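> forwarded from #structure-qc
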């Protein structure tokens, strides 16, 4: 399988990242709401623990949309997709250390880890939009971490909104690509 074909399959199966980013965006917004109207602890637990359910929930969304939920076994990008997904949990100790130092660094640190994990998506999906998403989250995390002390949750609200916006952009790009290549859209 050629790289371009493998990328096309990734774009098509995962709808340009739509389902995963929609689930992630909703989780970030839930966490931000808990951080705003509940406690910091609830917000942190929601995002840290909830993150482990992003993949299964993404699978449910894809199946609900009557889309395939996995790449074909011969796709050479299958391994890369799994490796990229594991970069976020591997970054959690860094997020934890930042949060222990200053509680208000929780969202900015998490934004940097999640944003950096989107950079390889540029190659994985063959979509430059992921470089913009990476830059927005990493830059936003740095900016908030260096300037905002209170309130606790702006990074959660910002990231949730950006992820949902990029979910819609990715879906639009993927469906337009499918339509161009096959003459049909789902």
């Amino acid at each position: 399988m050629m790289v371009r074909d493998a990328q096309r399959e990734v774009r098509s199966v995962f709808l340009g990242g739509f389902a995963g980013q929609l689930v992630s965006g909703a989780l970030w917004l839930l966490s931000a709401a808990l951080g705003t109207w509940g406690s910091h602890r609830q917000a942190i637990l929601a995002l840290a623990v909830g993150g482990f359910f992003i993949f299964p929930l993404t699978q449910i969304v894809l199946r609900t949309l009557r889309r395939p939920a996995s790449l074909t076994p011969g796709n050479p990008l299958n391994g890369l997709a799994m490796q990229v997904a594991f970069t976020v949990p591997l970054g959690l100790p860094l997020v934890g250390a930042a949060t222990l130092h200053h509680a208000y660094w929780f969202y900015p640190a998490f934004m940097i880890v999640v944003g950096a994990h989107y950079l390889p998506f540029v190659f994985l999906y063959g979509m430059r939009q992921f470089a913009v998403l990476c830059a927005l989250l990493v830059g936003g995390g740095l900016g908030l971490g260096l300037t905002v002390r209170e309130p606790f949750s702006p990074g959660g609200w910002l990231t949730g909104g950006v992820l949902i916006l990029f979910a819609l952009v990715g879906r639009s790009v993927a469906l337009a690509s499918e339509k161009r290549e096959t003459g049909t859209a789902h």
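QC bot note: The chain has one domain: 3-182. Residues 8 and 125 are 7 Å apart (CA to CA).
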